[in-house]
Amino acid sequence: MVFNERLRILRDERGWTQEKVARALDMPLRTYSGLEADGAKTHYDTLIKLADFYDVSVDWLMGRTEKREVNR
Question: Does residue 39 form part of some domain?
Answer without folding.
Answer: yes
